[in-house]
Specification:
The structure holds 3 protein chains of 3 kinds.
Chain A (H helix, E strand, L loop, with lengths): L1 E10 L2 E11 L3 E6 L6 H9 L8 E4 L2 E2 H4 L1 H4 L2 E4 L11 H11 L6 H10 L15 H9 L1 H4 L4 E5 L7 H16 L3 E5 L9 E6 L3
Parallel strand pairs in A: 3-8, 3-9, 6-7, 7-8
Antiparallel strand pairs in A: 1-2, 1-4, 4-5
Helix pairs in contact in A: 4-5
Chain B lengths: L1 H30 L13 H28 L2 H33 L7 H22 L3 H32 L15 H33 L10 H4 L1
Helix pairs in contact in B: 1-6, 2-3, 2-5, 2-6, 3-4, 3-5, 3-6, 4-5
Chain C lengths: L6 H16 L2 H22 L3 H22 L3 H9 L1 H7 L4 H15 L1 H12 L6 H28 L6 H28 L5 H30 L1
Helix pairs in contact in C: 1-6, 2-3, 2-7, 3-7, 3-8, 3-9, 6-8, 6-10, 7-8, 8-9, 8-10, 9-10
Classes of the chains: A alpha/beta, B mainly alpha, C mainly alpha.
Chain lengths: ~200, ~230, ~230
């Protein structure tokens, strides 16, 4: 269960949101809408614990995430706006090293299978520099298949993706929710998910 | 609330600083006896010694506030730290200059690579680094915290730096004249020096409180409570 | 979850950074050439008198090594910061301190170690005696890791700031003073036959201290930078 209690966000001179609270149970999804610069990414960064909350708190399974520390991070998968890919490495190398950073080991076959599902068959060993924006995004999202985490926090996961890939991602999220996972995502597109979906708008 | 209280205290400290400086100067320059070995030129130490004390002490105080600010996420403490830095740097700078002015007649040269002078110089660099870092960060919260980490790293390092410089100095003896064999001091000299030290204290408190008030005004422009203050409305 | 203190993570980071560096060899070579050029400039500025050169050689080599190891500091975290890898590291369940340690070790392997190996070669230009050469290499081997550790603090504090690379120099150089003193001092001591053990053990003590504290400070600074 993910709880946000009275979150506030001030960026420079502007207050982006104030007293924001919500609660997500297993199998539920939160869609965050808002214009550019309305504080969507700031909200997500607070939820994952990158930005400390000035007021209020984020709770996971009833305890504040600050206290849980790596216990929380073990349950969390965050795909932020910078994709976290190294241009000089291939898609496979990128995913393997990203798994290593997360203290999980993975075999090359598993990675290849994930990349195949992401529609990148035949490009596993191409350096990421040679991939298009959409393809890079797919590499990044292939982590959803590799890391078994209960909470997904995805910042604009559908950016640069074509219709087919968007459907793939939506399918993944649906499956994650039906397995009892929780997802928080920002998006500009309208999404239809089968699970319970909450929607909030940030910014005025 | 801190802001109005600080406002009330500033004049007191400022007056005390001015008074003490005048008395201290008088004692130092007119009452204290002429030093047998060093003549009249030694009188610069009435400025030099208190200023050097302050330069080191302020760094410790600054690191202390920075640590509080970082540990308890306290904004006021962090502001105190950044308000202290320029004053500390000024004292360090003064200490170097007065040291040089003293050294010229005593040693016949402006600069001696003496352990203390060298450490003081490095201390100045540390202050400058702290201020440069704070001014390079646009976001005040990040500036506070980054500065705090730097101040703490510096404070851990200062003993090591000091020790290493001493070590280096003892190995390269020769040109340098040791400062440690201070001539036995007449009571009046001591009093003058203490008065000046106290004056620097008062000056520091006054100036830092003033600076903190400025920082508060700047940072909390859009916080409601400032508008309720009488002074600000005027 | 292979282990709790994150040794496998450590290995993973080192491995990754080394592999990345191998794809961009010029980044590794630039500081080395810089080192060689700076060292060779001194005789041109000072004159080729042998005794003078021999006397100033330890200082010059050490100062040049200091500057060279600082040259690429801003790259230590900058790329990871820009492409989002650093975010992922901060969110990894593995301790961030371990990841930082890994990055510093990799950084040292790519700058400090080559400098250590190159320095005795360049010292031949200055006509240093063989025992001095050995001490020089030893002091650099102990001292350059300290430079990397302290440098990491500076790099993490200035992450993403304008004028970061110049600022790093300002922050880090005063903190390098003890390393310079003990490092260059050890070679000096060896040259006059005093024995360098005292210097080297002090240098070792500094290394232990920084290896303990620096990753921690760097971690704090990185989290601040990511806020």
């Amino acid at each position: 269960m993910l709880q946000a209690i009275n979150l506030d966000c001030v960026r420079g001179e502007r207050r982006l949101f104030h007293n924001l609270s919500f609660q997500l149970k297993a199998g539920e999804c939160l869609l965050v809408h808002g214009e550019n610069g309305s504080g969507k990414t700031s909200l997500l960064r607070m939820l994952v614990g990158l930005t400390p909350t000035a007021t209020g708190a984020v709770h996971w399974q009833g305890s504040p995430i600050k206290k849980l520390g790596d216990e929380y991070r073990r349950e969390l998968l965050y795909c932020g706006h910078p994709l976290g890919l190294k241009d000089a490495l291939s898609a496979t190398e990128n995913l393997i090293s990203s798994m290593e950073l997360n203290d999980e080991s993975v075999t090359q076959d598993v990675v290849h299978e994930a990349l195949r599902q992401a529609g990148l068959q035949g490009r596993e060993h191409l350096s990421v520099r040679a991939l298009s924006q959409g393809q890079k995004r797919r590499v990044n999202l292939a982590r959803l298949l590799l890391q078994k985490r209960a909470l997904w926090v995805l910042d604009e996961p559908l950016t640069a993706l074509d219709t087919q890939a968007s459907l793939w991602v939506v399918g993944l999220i649906d499956q994650h929710l039906s397995n009892g996972g929780i997802a928080v995502l920002t998006t500009h597109q309208d999404l239809t998910l089968t699970g319970t979906t909450h929607v909030i708008r940030v910014g005025i | 609330m801190f802001y109005p209280l600080a406002g009330k205290l500033i004049p007191w400290f400022a007056v005390a600083a001015a008074m003490l400086t005048i008395i201290g100067m008088y004692v130092g320059f007119f009452m204290a006896p002429t030093d047998a070995q060093q003549g009249e030129g030694y009188r610069i130490i009435f400025l030099h010694v208190p200023v050097s004390w302050m330069s080191m002490f302020i760094y410790l105080v600054m690191a202390f506030w920075a640590a509080i600010g970082l540990a308890f996420n306290n904004r006021l403490a962090a502001m105190m730290a950044s308000a202290l830095a320029p004053t500390g740097a000024m004292f360090t700078f003064l200490s170097l200059w007065t040291g040089a002015l003293w050294g010229k007649p005593m040693w016949g040269t402006w600069w001696v690579w003496d352990a203390r002078l060298t450490s003081e110089l490095i201390l100045l660099f540390l202050y400058i680094g702290f201020m440069a870092l704070q001014s390079a960060v646009d976001e005040p919260r990040r500036a506070d915290k980054a500065g705090a980490v730097l101040a703490l790293v510096g404070v851990v390092n200062i003993p090591i730096i000091y020790f290493s410089v001493q070590w280096w100095n003892t190995l390269h003896q020769g040109a340098s004249v040791s400062l440690t064999q201070a001539p036995s001091m007449a009571a009046l000299m001591l009093i003058g020096m203490l008065l000046m030290a106290l004056a620097s204290w008062m000056y520091t408190v006054a100036i830092v409180l003033m600076r903190v008030r400025c920082i508060i005004l700047e940072r909390e422009q859009h916080a409601g409570w400032l508008d309720e203050l009488k002074e600000v409305k005027q | 979850m292979s282990d709790t203190i994150g040794l496998s993570v450590l290995r993973g980071v080192i491995h990754r950074d080394l592999r990345l560096a191998m794809r961009r060899k010029s980044d590794v070579l630039t500081p080395l050439f810089f080192f060689a050029i700076v060292v060779s400039l001194f005789p041109l500025g000072i004159g080729s008198e042998r005794d003078t050169l021999r006397q100033i050689a330890p200082g010059i080599l050490w100062v040049a090594a200091l500057l060279a190891s600082m040259l690429s500091l801003d790259r230590l975290f900058e790329q990871d910061y820009a492409d989002g890898t650093l975010e992922q590291m901060a969110l990894s369940p593995a301790p961030l301190g371990m990841l930082v340690l890994g990055k510093v070790v990799a950084y040292w392997l790519l700058t400090g170690l080559p400098l250590t190996l190159l320095a005795p070669l360049l010292a031949l230009q200055f006509d240093l005696a063989t025992p001095s050469l050995l001490v020089l290499a030893a002091s650099l081997a102990i001292g350059t890791p300290v430079l990397s550790f302290i440098g990491a603090i500076g790099a993490s504090l200035t992450l993403g700031l304008r004028g970061g690379s110049v600022l790093v120099a300002l922050l880090v150089l005063p903190l390098y003073v003890p390393v310079l003193i003990f490092g260059a001092g050890s070679v000096d001591a060896a040259a006059v036959g005093l024995g360098a053990t005292a210097h080297l053990s002090l240098l070792g003590a500094v290394l232990v201290l920084t290896a303990f504290f620096a990753p921690w400070a760097t971690t704090v600074a990185l989290r601040i930078a990511l806020e």
